[in-house]
């Protein structure tokens, strides 16, 4: 792709992500995306064919950043459960602050009204959590009855519900605190090594 | 209210709940509600003034059944944590099967597109869970650091996320099994008496 086309696409995606996150899919028109990005609506149709097309591109673009994020949690020197907790804070922060991630979550919530097969992030999250829990088990950090796959599935669903419901009921600023409450309630059951505390996963100052 | 008016309202509410649960708010028209209930759309407008009005009535009608449900969990002879688990299975089953509850959950998910102040069930659920956890604490069934209020808040959000995400990803039939996975992961952290198992809350055969 030419550099100029790439720049155009990026500005369209950023504008669309902001608008989808703020106003939802039905509340956002191609004209809104054009106005917010400073490009013509002809440019939107040229690059993405339709509003469905740009919604799909927003979600795919967000998925493209996932390998970079998980790569940060591959350091074998850090206990795997601690890396899992830290990853969850990173995702929670993205859900609260990053327009692409927020747009993805809102488009997922509104998927019944969108005529495009939007992929969801839960399979990726569950795979990453399964891998970290399997590492934790090999390191002897999990209780014997905790199986990585089903546990990862349960954790991801409860985590996402906690984050989205907390934002809806109390606002995005509270999500990190509620996530800490949740880990405090959840970690003891994993049988994680007693030295691991959920707040180790939060950056300093939170 | 006259008996005949009551019958009409009930049939309108049931039709509206089914349609909202199946097709969502935007996908349901007053004409659809009229056709499904076998009443005229004039009857809808006479009793509820607007589509927003009937959505609100569906949610309020569902709330009205809550005291009956919680009354079933007041038996002091049953350990309170076990009653909490049983209540969660009842709510999960209603979310999977009861049209009024399903409509309420879908309307809540679509609240941004509905021009009416829809109450949410989470405060009621959290109050009930707080009460049961406080009873459990008095009975010595909780770990010392588990505070009823914040723990109830965390449990309710994780529970609802688990149920709704499980239904979206795997279908309603799997919700009970996933709820059992979740309680198995969560109960040990509560420090609940070791004799209480999550499946005690599920009816026989599930």
UniProtKB/TrEMBL annotation, chains A, B:
<keyword id="KW-0238">DNA-binding</keyword>
<feature type="DNA-binding region" description="H-T-H motif">
    <location>
        <begin position="29"/>
        <end position="48"/>
    </location>
</feature>
<dbReference type="GO" id="GO:0000976">
    <property type="term" value="F:transcription cis-regulatory region binding"/>
</dbReference>
<dbReference type="GO" id="GO:0003700">
    <property type="term" value="F:DNA-binding transcription factor activity"/>
</dbReference>
<dbReference type="InterPro" id="IPR050109">
    <property type="entry name" value="HTH-type_TetR-like_transc_reg"/>
</dbReference>
<feature type="domain" description="HTH tetR-type">
    <location>
        <begin position="6"/>
        <end position="66"/>
    </location>
</feature>
<dbReference type="Pfam" id="PF21935">
    <property type="entry name" value="TetR_C_45"/>
</dbReference>
<dbReference type="InterPro" id="IPR047923">
    <property type="entry name" value="ArpA-like"/>
</dbReference>
<dbReference type="InterPro" id="IPR009057">
    <property type="entry name" value="Homeodomain-like_sf"/>
</dbReference>
<keyword id="KW-0805">Transcription regulation</keyword>
<dbReference type="InterPro" id="IPR036271">
    <property type="entry name" value="Tet_transcr_reg_TetR-rel_C_sf"/>
</dbReference>
<keyword id="KW-0804">Transcription</keyword>
<dbReference type="InterPro" id="IPR001647">
    <property type="entry name" value="HTH_TetR"/>
</dbReference>
<protein>
    <submittedName>
        <fullName>AcrR family transcriptional regulator</fullName>
    </submittedName>
</protein>
<dbReference type="Pfam" id="PF00440">
    <property type="entry name" value="TetR_N"/>
</dbReference>
<dbReference type="InterPro" id="IPR054126">
    <property type="entry name" value="CprB_TetR_C"/>
</dbReference>
